Inverse folding.
């Protein structure tokens, strides 16, 4: 009499399932850590590069340059990282780029207006990227469900063909 190894299968399948979920969770956490890290780092890098530009722009802070890290982070990481990039950018530009430098005061109304537009644009890009990010995730989940259903359908077709063939052999 052979020992029944079938009883171990659910336990092994459960272990494999837990292992695969932990890998998936770790990948999601790692992606989030990278996205939020870039949300803080890219605006700082942009500020550094802007301060190193040798061309004289007078007192103009060139706030449009700071949209690039917001857009990149929001597209890569979704709404949360996009909002963090917007916040970091707003703080950095408000303190280091807009006169009077070194404070969060605004010497001119047009500077406040431009800074406000930068923030509004960052919020809009982040919200749009968040919707796009969710849509991509939903589409990916639907694709997996469709592939699973297709695989199951193929398996059922295969079993049906075998059954019909057996019936022919028996008849």
């Amino acid at each position: 009499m052979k020992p029944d190894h079938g009883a171990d299968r659910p336990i092994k399948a459960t272990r494999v399932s837990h292992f695969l979920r932990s890998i998936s969770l770790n990948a999601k956490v790692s992606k989030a850590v990278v996205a939020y890290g870039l949300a803080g780092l890219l605006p700082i890098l942009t500020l550094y590069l802007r301060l190193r530009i040798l061309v004289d722009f007078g007192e103009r802070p060139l706030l449009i340059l700071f949209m690039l890290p917001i857009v990149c982070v929001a597209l890569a990481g979704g709404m949360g990282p996009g909002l963090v990039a917007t916040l970091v950018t707003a703080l950095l530009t408000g303190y280091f780029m807009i006169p009077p430098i070194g404070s969060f005061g605004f010497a001119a109304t047009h500077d406040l207006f431009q800074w406000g537009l930068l923030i509004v644009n960052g919020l809009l890009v982040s919200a749009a990227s968040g919707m796009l990010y969710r849509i991509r995730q939903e589409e990916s989940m639907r694709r997996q469900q469709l592939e699973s259903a297709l695989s199951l359908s193929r398996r059922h077709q295969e079993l049906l063909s075998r059954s019909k063939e057996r019936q022919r052999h028996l008849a």
